[in-house]
Amino acid sequence: MDKVKLPEVWLRGPLNDVPVLLQPVAHALLQAREELNELMAYFPDLLLWNKVAGMASPGFHLQHLTGVLDRLFTYARGVGLSDDQLAYLAAEGKPAETISAVTLVEQFNLQVDKAVKQLANTNQSTLADVRGVGRAQVPSTVTGLYVHAAEHTMRHLGQLLVTVKVLKLGV
């Protein structure tokens, strides 16, 4: 039986509890999650750390997608990164046989859930508030961090899509 194709997330209506100004960010993250889950279904762990034309591996993209969301949403709360977050950043893209594609996808799904929950709990009056990014505390805003998280997620999803499709051709 054919699977019913739903419209893109942004065409399914507003999300309950997410402030209107943050709907596009939530829609983009939920769309990325759907596409990533479909793309990575049955992806062989054997190919997880393979690169195409010297570009980043699927394993890196999956780790980075999760890590960036975590870091940018942490900055949006006005909090610095924890030692665990810095350790995660340092480990992004380093092959490990104990890491599976399924686990990385699950971690991304959980991070999207956390991000959407944070969006739902964000007071719209804080969206223009300045937030420091990184050790240098480069100034951004809550809105800037959320929008960048969404566009960065979609950018890496696009790179992951091409890499996975090329790698699957070789199987």
UniProtKB/TrEMBL annotation:
In this chain the DinB-like domain maps to 29-160
Quote the protein name from its UniProt record: DinB family protein
**Stored Pfam families:** DinB_2
What InterPro entries does the entry give? DinB-like (IPR024775), DinB/YfiT-like (IPR034660)
Gene3D superfamilies assigned: dinb family like domain
The domain of life for this entry's organism is Bacteria
